[in-house]
Write a structure and sequence with these properties.
The termini are far apart. It is elongated, with a radius of gyration of 25 Å. The longest helix has 28 residues. By secondary structure, it is an alpha/beta fold.
Length: about 325
């Protein structure tokens, strides 16, 4: 089949390669033309402009957008839609909000251009193992797209999740779950690091990947990370979020569904970006005010102080807790 691919970032480039290796014809466009030329060396047809991409494709056309969610996708979708014809199909493979899919489909409907949303998971490993793909849209468009999906995904690795928006909705929840899983691993390894035993993280990760209940691809990735940096000393604990966790939590609120693990994992990412959070200073000040509990002055080595507190607390486990 023939497909127009717009966006050759880390995901888009390797998706294009996978389609080429599967025997499909890829017409590629990227604002930085050097990226387009890179894929052209592997067999893609390069387009310097969106108009050239559309002109190169045979009607009825399929154009897959693999761009950052939000404004970038909106801008490119509007541009390509103005060039397409009735019967053409646009697929949005970004991590866009499912409600934006409904808006995009409504905007394209008067032009009789079909729209599908595709939530794609696989990261930088997708080229080798395939991309798990969650698709939303009408059945006819799905059937038309299916040969491309078969090449993109591993066996049983794609699903028509429902009408427009369903693909990104399922991917949104997928990423929310991912937040919680990663946070659980992070907390577990920190508990190990703070223990009197201090087992090597790499050895523990490798052990747990040998048939334990928590074995997983995420834990395999943790094992790889510990191979590169045994105690992750070269990595900052600053953790961004790309939106899906927030949308999942908002949907949980809208649906009246409790999602405490996903919610707390998102909030922990917020904390990771703060240096000496004000809320923690308020807590320290309140304990000092009502109970005379000691406070650390700004600039003190808090990790040293915390280690001392942990050592004191574990020295006598029969001591009764007091204060807050």
């Amino acid at each position: 089949m023939q497909i127009g691919l717009v966006g050759l970032g880390r995901m888009g480039m390797n998706m294009g390669r996978r389609w080429l290796r599967g025997g499909h014809e890829v017409v590629a466009f990227n604002r930085t033309f050097a990226k387009t030329e890179e894929l052209a060396k592997e067999g893609a047809k390069p387009a310097k402009t969106m108009a050239e991409l559309v002109k190169t494709l045979k009607a009825p056309r399929i154009v897959w957008l693999m761009l950052p969610a939000g404004a970038a996708t909106d801008e490119h979708l509007k541009e390509v839609a103005a060039l397409l014809s009735p019967g053409d199909l646009i697929v949005d493979g970004a991590n866009n909000y499912f409600k934006d899919d409904l808006r995009h489909a409504a905007e394209l409907a008067p032009k009789k251009i079909a729209f599908m949303d595709a939530g794609v998971s696989g990261g930088i490993w997708g080229l080798k193992v395939g991309y798990c793909t969650m698709v939303g849209g009408d059945k006819a468009s799905f059937q038309r797209l299916e040969p491309l999906l078969k090449t993109l995904a591993p066996a049983d690795g794609y699903l028509h999740c429902g009408d427009v928006g369903a693909g990104h909705f399922v991917k949104m929840v997928h990423n929310g779950i991912e937040y919680g899983m990663m946070q659980a691993f992070a907390e577990g390894f920190e508990i190990l690091a703070a223990s009197p035993y201090k087992p090597e993280p790499l050895k523990v990760a490798h052990l747990w990947n040998q048939g334990s209940v928590v074995r997983s691809w995420l834990l395999e990735l943790a094992e790889e990370a510990f191979k590169k940096d045994a105690h992750l000393d070269g990595i900052s604990g600053f953790v961004e979020d790309s939106g899906e966790g927030r949308w999942t939590i908002q949907q949980a609120i809208d649906s009246g569904v409790a999602a405490p693990v996903i919610t707390l994992s998102l909030f922990q990412r917020f904390v990771s970006r703060q240096k000496d959070p004000f809320s923690f200073r308020v807590l320290a000040a309140l304990r000092n005010e009502f109970g005379g509990h000691a406070v650390q002055k700004a600039g003190d080595d808090r990790r040293t102080a915390t280690a001392g507190i942990i050592q004191a607390a574990t020295a006598d486990r029969s001591a009764k807790p007091h204060g807050l």
